[in-house]
Q: What sequence folds into this?
């Protein structure tokens, strides 16, 4: 049950609109004993506030649901774990469908396609330009699951300390930040909040490009190691009073260092 | 009974009610009826013999919390339950609702109602084909009616007659009777034909029953 915030309900007195927040709180008081809640949260992907109905229990009763078979749920788990284990947190359509080959008891590719479409409709997955990401429902329902079974991939936002599923990594220190949190911070100060590096939109662009490069080319690392050696010797010889130029080269170094580190991992 | 054991007893009772409510909630989505025995499994052993008391509370809670009505259906010697809405309410359709399936079901139920009696299966396939809902040569598509809607108790699919004259017929199932007011169907048909519901006197009488 995923609904967008629009107009609020009305109380018995026609002229008194009930605040959505109070309404949700009242509902939560009633459904809490049943290990359910309604949460107002932010969908980073669509830049909207959303209202989600969540179930918190994972036990034999919740497993009694018959909407999805055990095989289908296994496929879903494979998908989300695969997505979470990749830096860019998205996989292509073909990659998603081919994951069925990793399953002991297979499901057909057609079944996989239908499931992917269904999960997108249910907000468990999101499809953008033929790439699948975690949907806002998965991000909220599976937070505990990821913390328990994949703690290494969980990153806390530098600013709000909540989990980041979609966001930016600082190009210098790799700290994760929600895009929304970063934008709110940048409204006041044009620096990366974590290491106070000057921020420029180009940095995000460069970062994305370098990520793509490491994924495509095998020889990237070789080329970079040669360049790094020559850069280091150049940097130590240059006396540069122009701060802007220094920072620019610093940024480029950082990007390369980041890409190399990721390649090594 | 000591105060402590009374509290413990109440706690067990409340817990049993909660588990049953949760179970019904988790099971209701696919609309396949729930066996009474499956619900009773969620009750603490101490209260299995007082399952009636537990179920009364379960029904109350389902109504209070979710607006659900737990309806008992007798199927030969088994007791089944289906979940329907206590009151009709308007809400946007779920994104996962298969609208084509819904249309086919609406068509089938309307045809049965307007015919005034159970519809023979050949007649149903012909009707669905003519109304563009389900092509007559789509044999696998027929499983939607003979299996899915029948299991969900929207339709009943039963054998009438014996031997060579035996035919399968479709009629309204218990879920359709609970969920779909006949008046609503007639109104829709009347609007489609640009007439007044009262023009269909036979059907109109049935809506008053």
A:
């Amino acid at each position: 049950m995923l609904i967008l915030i629009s107009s609020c309900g009305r109380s018995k007195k026609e002229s008194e609109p009930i605040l959505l927040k109070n309404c949700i709180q009242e509902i939560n008081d009633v459904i809490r004993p049943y290990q359910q809640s309604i949460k107002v949260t932010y969908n980073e992907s669509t830049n909207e506030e959303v209202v989600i109905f969540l179930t918190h229990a994972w036990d034999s009763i919740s497993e009694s649901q018959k909407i999805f078979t055990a095989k289908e749920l296994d496929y879903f788990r494979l998908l989300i774990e695969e997505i979470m284990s990749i830096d860019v947190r998205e996989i292509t359509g073909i990659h998603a469908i081919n994951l069925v080959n990793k399953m002991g008891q297979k499901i057909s590719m057609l079944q996989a396609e239908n499931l992917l479409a269904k999960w997108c409709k249910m907000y468990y997955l999101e499809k953008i330009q033929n790439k699948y990401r975690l949907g806002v429902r998965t991000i909220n329902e599976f937070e505990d699951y990821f913390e328990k079974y994949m703690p290494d991939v969980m990153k806390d936002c530098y600013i709000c300390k909540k989990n980041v599923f979609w966001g930016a990594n600082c190009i210098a220190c790799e700290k994760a930040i929600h895009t929304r949190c970063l934008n709110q911070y940048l409204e006041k100060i044009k620096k990366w909040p974590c290491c106070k590096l000057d921020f420029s939109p180009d940095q995000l662009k460069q970062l994305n490009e370098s990520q793509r490069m490491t994924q495509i080319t095998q020889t990237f690392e070789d080329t970079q190691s040669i360049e790094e050696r020559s850069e280091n010797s150049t940097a130590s010889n240059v006396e540069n009073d122009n701060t802007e130029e220094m920072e620019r080269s610093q940024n480029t170094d950082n990007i390369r260092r980041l890409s190399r580190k990721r390649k090594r991992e | 009974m000591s105060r402590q054991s009374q509290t413990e007893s109440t706690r067990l009772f409340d817990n049993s009610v909660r588990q049953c409510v949760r179970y019904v909630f988790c099971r209701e989505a696919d609309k396949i009826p729930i066996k009474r025995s499956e619900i009773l499994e969620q009750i603490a052993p101490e209260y299995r013999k007082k399952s009636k008391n537990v179920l009364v509370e379960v029904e109350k809670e389902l109504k209070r919390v979710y607006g659900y009505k737990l309806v008992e259906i007798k199927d030969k010697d088994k007791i089944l339950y289906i979940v329907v809405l206590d009151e009709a309410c308007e809400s946007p359709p779920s994104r996962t609702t298969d609208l084509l399936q819904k249309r086919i079901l609406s068509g089938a139920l309307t045809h049965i109602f307007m015919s005034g009696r159970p519809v023979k299966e050949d007649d149903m396939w012909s009707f669905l084909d003519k109304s563009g809902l389900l092509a007559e040569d789509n044999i696998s598509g027929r499983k939607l009616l003979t299996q899915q809607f029948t299991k969900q108790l929207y339709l009943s699919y039963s054998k009438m007659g014996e031997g060579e004259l035996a035919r399968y017929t479709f009629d309204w199932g218990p879920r359709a009777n609970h969920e779909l007011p006949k008046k609503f169907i007639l109104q829709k048909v009347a609007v489609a034909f640009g007439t007044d519901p009262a023009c269909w006197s036979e059907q109109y009488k049935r809506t008053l029953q």
Remarks:
- Chain A touches chain B at residues 30-31, 33-35, 57, 61-62, 64-67, 118, 121-122 (CB under 8 Å).
- Residues 1-17, 210-224, 235-265 of chain A have pLDDT under 50 and may be disordered.
